[in-house]
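Reopening this ticket.

The earlier resolution said the output was attached, but the attachment link was broken on my side. Pasting everything inline this time so it's all in one place.
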Amino acid sequence: MCGICGKFAYNNGENVREDLLRKMMAVMSHRGPDDDGVYLEGGLGLGHKRLSIIDLSHLGHQPMTNEDKTVWVIFNGEIYNYKELRTELLTRGHMFASQSDTEVIVHAYEEFGEECFKKFNGMFAIGIWDGKSRKLVLARDRVGVKPLYFYEGDEVLLWGSEIKAILEDPCVPREVDMESLSQFLTFHYVPAPRTMFRNIRKLFPGHLLVCDANGAKIRKYWELPIPEKRLDDFNYLERRIYEELKESVNKRLQSDVPLGVLLSGGLDSSAILGLMTELQGKPVKSFTVGYSNRPDDRFSEFTYARKAAKYFNSDHYEVIVDSKKFLDYLPKASWHEDEPISEDSAVPMHFVSELAKENGVTVLLTGEGSDELFAGYNRHWGEIITRYYQMVPSALRNTIIKTLIKAMPGSPLLKKGHRSMTIQDFPSRFMSWHTVVGNELKRELLLTQDFVCDVYQGVFGKFEKNIENLDPLDKILYLDFHVWLPDDLLMKKDKMGMSVSIEARVPFLDYKFVEFAFLISNTMKVKNFSTKYILKKSMERLLPREIIYRKKEGFPTPISEWLRDELREFAFDLLLSPHSNCRLFFNQKVIRRLLEEHVSRREDHWRILFPLINFELWYRAFFKSA
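Inline output:
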């Protein structure tokens, strides 16, 4: 796990300076404290910060080259099938000087060219300089576990694992992208390929960027297969899911440094803990974050995490995050995230990663991805009952039910769910499930109205041809997998883990497991209004029922209550003071109204206010204040 960066002046005669590369690397030092290296060749510069995971010797040093120094590689991530590929390449006559997975990339590119990425099973962001062809190849893993950003200017390309590295070059302008700001308000994150910085882009998962003297071109090397026939044999699936997940966990145990598990006490992380324990045959270190040590606290993860830890006899550690700890770290979290990704669990994710680091762990296995594969969110369950709800006579829906829902104070998710189920066409209903700030409120908030537009078409339109023959739930799962998962959840996971040099691995997102999961019929995923039905049944052989069938929590935070109490003064001052940068973009009267409605408990607006707070902190981190 590392940080990569570089610059390619592909047609303007500029020589890349080492001091620039060193600055780009230094700003990402948290990603790779163990080693660093640069390679310069005229208009090309490659930079690498290393966190040693596999092959701790100096032989894993990057940038890494082949025997005649015509191919150079920088790499962030892990290739889980590197041993098998190494064996294959040895039979084809390649010679190896190390045991690292990076050297496998070097020789795989020599042997297979740009097709080599199809052979890699792993999480990665890779940069390859092909000296013979005078071209640069950038690649991102199929699912998007590892980030990769780029900027193309006047015949120059810059790239990095983090945006802040690219911004070290003074040729890169710092400008807010207004369409990205509009999308951020809609979703509370910015979907690829955009970022909140104008002209800095994310490389899509499963894509290559190839740059030569003619400029940069992007193409896809992997696409999630859409099966014509789905699997619905209960006995087969119940057994096969267990076997496939166990194999995926086993791949992610490859490491020359200590491993642990991020444990919430829910189904997914407890399953990872159980499988790690079974495979290693010894207690595993587990780590949990919470906001209270009281078992009756609805924001406490400790009760079920302790049950799972006791069940598998893990070496268990806990950290409590209070409002002061949360607030003190929030500005630093905005800097690490590069963009205002308003996941309230990002800050606690940092502290639990820090806890793992303090206790000798460098690699954490986590449960992300299960909900997107097996339909684990309320919106997935809601999409199933929508078809039944819409059978209810409209007179009843528009009178009694609507009146009862409207009368419930402080229930934004319930009201949002009800509103979504009344919508007939899929694109509008999908946007209703996902929207944080709707267009009506967005028009009130934004000082510039030009970017309030059809977000669905702009973000999800590219997938319409792929999903046109799928049923509504399959469409949601497909779109969640391609956008929400990589641009929100995985981005948070990477940035907060790497903030303390922790590598996070996600067994549910092995691409072969992903392809298998999308073969499974939805009747096996949501059944009797129970989400993740077949996964739960499969894990009954491993986990106690009280963990499998507990209410889903994720990593919840008491942010709504904090904004009414401990963080109230902070929020008003940050968003409404004369020094607030929000006044450059947002209507202050509307923000004041939202704050006052929230603190008076007339409405629960934390899902709107927290993104605004994150935007302000992000702007202060990367721009001069107003």
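Reporter confirms the inline version is readable. Residues 2-220 form a domain with the Glutamine Phosphoribosylpyrophosphate, subunit 1, domain 1 fold (CATH 3.60.20.10). The radius of gyration is 24 Å.
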